[in-house]
């Protein structure tokens, strides 16, 4: 999904074209407190298919499933 030019221009203006800031600093400056977008790239198409089916069975979004899994995984690490 492409970002409209007007949105992109407004975003650039809000960043103030700070050349000293790293790309990650600019990205995190725009993050919303309620949610953050994460893009995952998965090579295994079968895994994605199974994940989608599991999400439908659980009546949850893939995002919710990932968040639950990541939370449990981080708790187990500590």
| Largest beta-sheet details | none
Q: What share of the residues lie within helices?
A: 55-70%
| Rounded mean pLDDT score | 77
List the helices and strands in order: HHHH
Q: Assign an overall shape.
A: extended
Number of helices: 4
Q: Regarding quaternary structure, how should these chains be classified?
A: single chain
SS strand fraction: under 5%
Q: Radius of gyration, rounded?
A: 17 Å
Intertermini distance: 37 Å
Going by helix content, strand content and strand pairing, the class is mainly alpha
The low-pLDDT segments are none
Tally the beta strands.
0
Account of the 3D structure:
The chain is mainly α. It has a domain at 39-78. Helices cover 62% and strands 0% of the residues. It has four helices and no strands. The protein has helices spanning 5-15, 23-29, 45-58, 62-77. The longest helix is centred in the last third of the chain and has 16 residues, at 62-77. The model has no long low-confidence stretch (mean pLDDT 77).
Q: How does the SSE layout of this entry go?
A:
Blueprint (H helix, E strand, L loop, with lengths): L4 H11 L7 H7 L15 H14 L3 H16 L1
Keywords: Plasmid
InterPro entries: Arc_rbn_hlx_hlx (IPR013321)
Protein name: Plasmid partitioning protein
């Amino acid at each position: 999904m492409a970002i409209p030019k007007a949105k992109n221009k407004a975003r650039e203006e809000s960043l103030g074209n700070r050349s000293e800031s790293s790309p990650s600093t600019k990205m995190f400056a725009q993050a919303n407190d309620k949610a953050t977008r994460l893009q995952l790239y998965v090579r295994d198409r079968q895994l994605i298919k199974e994940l989608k089916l599991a999400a439908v069975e659980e009546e949850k979004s893939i995002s919710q499933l990932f968040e639950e899994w990541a939370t449990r995984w981080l708790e187990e690490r500590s």
